[in-house]
Amino acid sequence: MSRNYLKIILWLLVVNPVLGKPDTLTITDTSAYSPIFGLSQILITTSKIEIEAIKQQKNWQPLNSVYLIPGEKNVWIRFFLKNQFNYPQKFYLRNPDNETCDYYIFKGKEKLYYLNNGEFVSTYKRNSTELIGVNTFEVPASATVEIYINIYNYKGLIPALRIFPQRSIKTTYALLNEKRYQNWLNNYYAHNLEELQIRTFYQGGLGIILVVAFLIFYRNRHEKIYFYYLLYVLAAFTFTLFKSRSFTYIGQLLGLLPIIKFYSPETTIWLGFAVYLLFIIELLDLKKNHSDFSNFLNKLAKGFIAYSLVVFVWLILTNDSGLQLWLFNNNRIPLLLLYTGILIFVAVKVGSSMVRYLIIGNSLLIIFGMLAWLKGGVLNQQHWYGVLNHLFTLPLAILLEIIVFALAIAKKIEAERKIKNELEQKTMQVEMMALRSQMNPHFLFNSLNSIRYLVMVNENDTASDYLTKFSKLLRMILNHTEKNVIRLSEELVALKLYLDIEKRRFGETLSYAIMVDEQIEAEALQIPPMLLQPFVENSIWHGLMPSQRKDKCIEIFIKKINDSLVEFMIKDNGIGRIMAGELKEKSMKQHQSKGTEITSQRIELFNRNYANKITISINDLYEDGEPVGTMVRVLYTL
Fold it and tell me: Where do transmembrane segments lie in this chain (predicted)?
């Protein structure tokens, strides 16, 4: 008997450690996907217990299958793992479904690793892999390690306010060695490549539209519609970012605050809905034409904002994932009915060219959005064939709607620009008429002064002839007042009448000449009325009248430079602008012509209002360093 006891003792001390414990996992390169149930044990507690106390527990139960355990419980799993090779081997534990998992790995009494992973574990606390629920560790050569996994849900700051039970804890853990993990990882990335490509397309498209929306808003900061459109695009773009996979750079960044990332997408959607309602109020000009409906949508938008913020804060404080799931499954139908009612009202009652864009955009949102909701909620993440599995998603629905709204905004901008141009053109016409109304009385005043002068010096015959010419000139001025442009021939007739009137006053000391290029068609060329007269008047009053010369002369040249350019030149042999300015300073009571200033303003308005352009240059003429007159050059681009 003593010999048999000795054999048992030797087997326990030598053979058993070599072969491994009865519940020890052994993974080789040829091993398939290796779930840990069957060789593991499970312990369920009502509260969190420290690892040292757990190691002393005796009431472990076999883990024979995948369990769904109430989310309020605290779950422990333990098993043994043997490295059968004489060199260290890396292993991977995978479970992507739980909120928080703590991993304790012991070699005898020595703790080799403490790892932390899960959906609610921050990026910087996770193990070296970038995947949620995947941990890596190394087992020394020919060693057997004991592994404890603690699984629990985040309780929240105020768990007593929780309405629904927390989501169940899953025991779907698998163990892989390096080779099997790389095979699984390649398959994982290949499976998700199509989704990543489509998701990148969503994010890239929305990102570009966001930049464009910001630029439009920046140039039109005073208009609310562009601000609301920018916020709507921002909400959609933010939603796609929150849905990024954990292994992407964006997913890693957002994973620093995992509970925010987990609950933010739904909140962002509702905030986007709120901004969308404010956007369509401005798009359809509902405040002007349907104030009651506008007030209703405005209140509804505020309700969406309040709902989203209250629910978000509630979920953050309580981690009531059951409430989130219930809201996801039950608020889409009322929202669909509400949106359908809004669309019907808009289609029937609102008479706007933007309605068709609204209906098209919302139809796309409803169709794709509801299919995404069915796939993700009611159908419980059912896998659809090929690209359809990723195509029917809410980001795509929103992207399509935003593109349609971009077209609507472009149409609205075009319509507003057209109205603005029409208003500007009418304003310019009114301004030009106002300037002409200032100019004509000014010219009439000068002419009447000339007649008064002739009467005072008893030149009655001259005054009578003057009045005849003046009446003809007055009739032409009155006829031209309502016109923006007149024929050159009409301008020249009026200009000759004016010069004849002024020549009467000056006598033989004043002469003038008007020379028109033979290539100029005076009956066809259109110019602003009284374009040249103010410069001629200015030459006479300020250049020739103060001059002591006996041969006072003013010459007007009109010639065609090329097919698109005509030159008007007014040249006098007066005292020049410098001496005229000195005389004006000495006697402020002398004649102060505003004709040139008014004409400059009229030309500025003309250039803004018409395709034809007018430019003016004025130069002093010198001979042997002495001023001998002034030349005005008017270039008229056809």
Answer: 201-218, 225-242, 262-284, 304-327, 333-350, 357-375, 387-410
In this prediction the pTM is 0.64
Place of tokens 């750079």: 249
pLDDT greater than 70 at residue 53 = yes
Q: Which two tokens stand for residue 580?
A: 């005229």
**How big, in percent rounded to 5, are the helix, strand and coil portions of the chain?**
55, 20, 25
Structure tokens at 116: 């932390």
Rounded Cα–Cα distance for residues 350 and 334 (Å): 23
**Contacts of 223 by beta carbon, 8 Å cutoff, 6+ apart:** 282
Give me the mean pLDDT over the 87-116 stretch. Answer: 89
Amino acid at 155: K
Q: Is the dihedral of CA 497, 502, 505, 507 positive or negative?
A: negative
Report the C-alpha gap between 470 and 460 in whole angstroms: 14
E strand residue ranges, 436-551? 486-487, 510-516, 526-527
Mean pLDDT lowest among 45-54, 221-230, 243-252: 243-252
- Give the angle 599-600-604 at the CA atoms, nearest 5°: 115
Q: Output the CA–CA distances (angstroms, integers) from residue 620 to 591, 593, 627, 634, in the order listed.
A: 21, 18, 7, 15
Specify whether the CB–CB gap between 568 and 634 falls below 8 A: yes
Residue 13: its pLDDT value, please? 38
Structure tokens, 5:
């006891």
The pLDDT score that the predictor gives to residue 295 is 93
State residue 355's pLDDT score. 80
**Nearest alpha carbon to residue 131 among 317, 39, 255:** 255
H or E element at residue 636? strand 626-637
Task: Give the span between the Cα atoms of 602 and 167, in whole angstroms.
Answer: 77
HSE at residue 5, side-chain half, CA atoms within 13 A, is: 2
pLDDT, the chain, mean: 80
